[in-house]
Amino acid sequence: MPELTADLGACQGYANCVVAAPDTYDIDDDGLVVLVRTEIPEEDRARVEEAARSCPVSALKVDGK
Amino acid sequence: MSAHAVGRGPGADGRAVIVGASVAGVRTAQALRREGWTGPVTLVGDEPHPPYDKPPLSKQLLTGAWEPGRAVLLDGPAAREAGITLRLGSPAVRLDPAGRRVSLADGQTLSYDVLVLATGAAARPSPWRPGSGLHVLRGLDDLLALRRDLELPGPVVVVGGGFIGAEVASAVRARGREVTLVDPLPVPMARLMGEEVGAHFNGLHRRHGAVTAFGTGVESITGRAGALTVRLSDGGALPAATVVVGIGSVANDAWLRDSGIPLEDGVLCDEYGRVPGHLGVYAVGDLARRRLPGPGGPQRSEHWTSAVEQAACVARTITRPSAPSAEASVPYVWSDQYDWKAQIVGAPGGARLHRLIGDPDGSPARFAALYSGDGARLTGAVLVNWPRAMLMARRLIAEEGALAHAERELTATGQVSRA
């Protein structure tokens, strides 16, 4: 299953990802992304990837099949 | 001429040319592929550099936290893999919409079935022209030149207290340099967020050791790099090794002047980016002056998040013209200044400040300023160091939530955060 990863060193709390896919991304009190799930079903992949692309510092990646 | 050139717009096997290689152009090219465009996609950029992202120019790239490679949006291998042809280093100089051709400065001509105009905006030119040592900051070459001049010892003067000026002042302070920020407005951020909240941003500069000369205009800037003099309208004079001028932007639309494309400091288009009267021609990003639903004239949005969303939407509209797609998100901008991460959602400018929740003077500060255009609903918010509240405000604005409800929710979040 495609796997979602976050680079917490890069994350700046812009939160575009949470707006785009709130079922997959959240943000903690310090403004760092929290991945609600890391295994992404194929049917959700396009939406989760679009949310990842909305990250201004490219902190999010979906890899694998 | 291809069979589909009249009436219905081109099919997904046509030639797509995108002029402008900043985030709006790059994302449009990538999105066209994702949306199933099978024809050639060519991305034209005026600079020789691989397409790169602009927000870090006044932030991580200026402080030195990042090197330029980190801001690259699309390198050669990634472009090849996506089937995007990069035409870099030669600006588009002319458009012939009837012949469906774009001419580049190097004499080449590109024919298209679909054209996306994404040439963005340039820094408003400085009205002051000393011999050397004066900078604007809009592109990578600007950044590299500024970083070189910042090696010269001596104070730095920044003219313009908007986002760019404030971020430059912050980055220059982070490099341990003396800086004075000059702006003719007493509270430069007031237009965007009102006097009261804007005043907290004034205080932020001073707390971090920047000198503010606000409410003061610039009369002249003379001298050369390392030995400049900035004369102020109040009679004062500031010595400077380097001066940075950030006084707004102008659309890069001069190359379209004789094309018949409707222009008004940008390309006039509808909410989907379609240019009226020009089937198959679209505009996105800082260049696009969109006519949006609701009151108010057509507007340019100069924000990264909007450019990214416009790019995704225009690619959908190009591939599915019968179901055009428009940006639907609440406007969202951010600005990193000193130890403040400011996030602005909706439209606080022109709206009334309803309440400020949290502590703007704390170390670190954390607050939410709530605005309402009609006294009943939340229509804008300024958040500092509080991403969760930003998310909540963004949702409440989208839902057209009642102001009292928004206030309760945000106050409750604040109490939980502090516990």
UniProtKB/TrEMBL annotation, chain A:
<dbReference type="InterPro" id="IPR051269">
    <property type="entry name" value="Fe-S_cluster_ET"/>
</dbReference>
<keyword id="KW-0003">3Fe-4S</keyword>
<keyword id="KW-0813">Transport</keyword>
<keyword id="KW-0411">Iron-sulfur</keyword>
<keyword id="KW-0479">Metal-binding</keyword>
<keyword id="KW-0408">Iron</keyword>
<keyword id="KW-0249">Electron transport</keyword>
<protein>
    <submittedName>
        <fullName>Ferredoxin</fullName>
    </submittedName>
</protein>
<dbReference type="Pfam" id="PF13459">
    <property type="entry name" value="Fer4_15"/>
</dbReference>
From TrEMBL, chain B:
<dbReference type="InterPro" id="IPR023753">
    <property type="entry name" value="FAD/NAD-binding_dom"/>
</dbReference>
<dbReference type="Pfam" id="PF14759">
    <property type="entry name" value="Reductase_C"/>
</dbReference>
<keyword id="KW-0560">Oxidoreductase</keyword>
<protein>
    <submittedName>
        <fullName>FAD-dependent oxidoreductase</fullName>
    </submittedName>
</protein>
<keyword id="KW-0285">Flavoprotein</keyword>
<dbReference type="InterPro" id="IPR036188">
    <property type="entry name" value="FAD/NAD-bd_sf"/>
</dbReference>
<dbReference type="InterPro" id="IPR050446">
    <property type="entry name" value="FAD-oxidoreductase/Apoptosis"/>
</dbReference>
<feature type="domain" description="Reductase C-terminal">
    <location>
        <begin position="332"/>
        <end position="405"/>
    </location>
</feature>
<dbReference type="InterPro" id="IPR016156">
    <property type="entry name" value="FAD/NAD-linked_Rdtase_dimer_sf"/>
</dbReference>
<dbReference type="InterPro" id="IPR028202">
    <property type="entry name" value="Reductase_C"/>
</dbReference>
<dbReference type="Pfam" id="PF07992">
    <property type="entry name" value="Pyr_redox_2"/>
</dbReference>
<feature type="domain" description="FAD/NAD(P)-binding">
    <location>
        <begin position="16"/>
        <end position="311"/>
    </location>
</feature>
<keyword id="KW-0274">FAD</keyword>
